[in-house]
Amino acid sequence: MPNQPRTAAILVAAGRGLRAGAGGPKQYRSIGGQPVIYRAMYPFSTHPQISAVQPVVNPDDAGVFDAAVRGLRYTPAVKGGATRQASVHAGLEALAAAKPDIVLIHDAARPFVSASLISRAIDAAAATGAAIPAIPVADTIKLVDGNGRIEATPERARLRIAQTPQSFRFDAILEAHRRAAREGRDDFTDDAALAEWVGLTVATFEGDAANMKLTTPEDFVREEARLASLLGDVRSGTGYDVHAFGDGDHLMICGIRVPHTRGFLAHSDGDVGLHALVDAILGALADGDIGSHFPPSDMKWKGAASDKFLKYAVERVTSRGGRIANLEVTLICERPKIGPLRDQMRARIAEITGLDISRVAVKATTSERLGFTGREEGIAATACATIRLPWDDKGPV
Ligand SMILES: Nc1ccn([C@@H]2O[C@H](COP(=O)(O)OP(=O)(O)OP(=O)(O)O)[C@@H](O)[C@H]2O)c(=O)n1
Ligand SMILES: C[C@](O)(CO)[C@H](O)COP(=O)(O)O
Fold it and tell me: Where is a divalent metal cation annotated to bind (predicted)?
């Protein structure tokens, strides 16, 4: 095994979710405001050790699949089979040409998988060749006959609940699936069972009680309530920007054109208000700053309208499944007078960001004729953004 094994992930999503009741296949239903499959795929798509994410879907779901995972990194989906086992096999065959060293196989119906569980799965496969996440059993389990009479009480301390992502050396699990297909075995409910059948030793590693599979309508009700009760991953960021005045007859401030006796000296349109907001949002995401995303050295941004920058920052939040709770900007200048323009600016920021205007504040102050803003050499702006990400790899704050 190379030092840095190439690791792919298969996301099986071709099931019909019959046990979950009405509402279409459960992986496309919403949980905590996001499609189940988006939550299940996101930690794989963003994991630095996963080189490819291979979804397996039912062709009837192609449209809803595309919409549900928009913005995530994955290779084109392949068609699933009539059973979970057949769907996994289809995913493995799709990866056969790329031949990764390790493959992780995950249920799209397990939306609460974390980055750390994925890392454990990769480490376990690298160390053992075949491993699954497992959690201890809390209740006593009975083995019963067809009439419900107890045949045996297995020793609870040795029982485990099997989860996904299950991780394997790619060539071994592909060969195991091919052999099962050749021999007409299609009854394995997980890949570990199939691996055991071909004689592989399968290890276990620490699973995660939160990484449950959504199977029944009650699972949806319970997990929806749990998510609603969480504060979520709330973050705030601040931004600051300054632009000097030059020649001109108008200024762009907070997305609106303000007639003025001066213009801005700037690479873009010089909209200090929007620039400060972009930095506040990127700050909340710990995702660099406006200069790192739109370098002033890049001629592409010369004279650019700053609403593009703000839209981009908002998309950085929404593509992570997050939402902006509120935006606030304070403009520091003697002139132009911001008060009469305040609501127009709030409306424009709300329009650019898709927020309700009640979540957008525009404030202004002078600097009492002190400093560069007091001397009317330019305008400064500070901003603050609060965002809420739906969950965090390290758990809710
Ligand atoms: N033919 C199938 C059956 C299941 N799966 C996937 O395997 C995972 C675990 O299966 P399960 O929870 O049983 O899902 P369903 O088969 O959809 O559910 P049900 O048995 O209630 O119909 C799910 O992500 C499901 O989409 C699949 O890709 N192809
Ligand atoms: C693979 C699995 O999620 C491990 O617990 C489980 O076996 C899937 O079973 P299902 O019958 O497809 O629900």
Answer: 241, 243, 275
> 7-229 has which fold?
Spore Coat Polysaccharide Biosynthesis Protein SpsA; Chain A (3.90.550)
Q: Which atom of ligand 1 is nearest to the CA of 13?
A: 26
Q: What is the pLDDT of residues 273-317, one digit of tens each?
A: 999 999 999 999 999 999 999 988 888 888 889 999 999 999 999
For the cut 90, the answer to whether the pLDDT of residue 117 exceeds it is yes
Mutation test of ligand 1: which of 107, 188, 194 has the most ligand atoms closer than 8 Å to its C-beta? 107
What pLDDT does 5 receive?
Answer: 84
Residue 280's Cβ-count burial label (10 Å; 0-12, 13-18, 19+) is buried
ipTM reported for the complex, 2 dp = 0.95
- CA 382–ligand 1 middle distance (angstroms): 50
Q: Say whether pLDDT at 70 is over 60.
A: yes
Q: Which residues are annotated as a binding site?
A: 241-243, 267-268, 275, 289-291, 365-368, 372, 375
Residue spans per domain, the chain: 7-229, 233-389
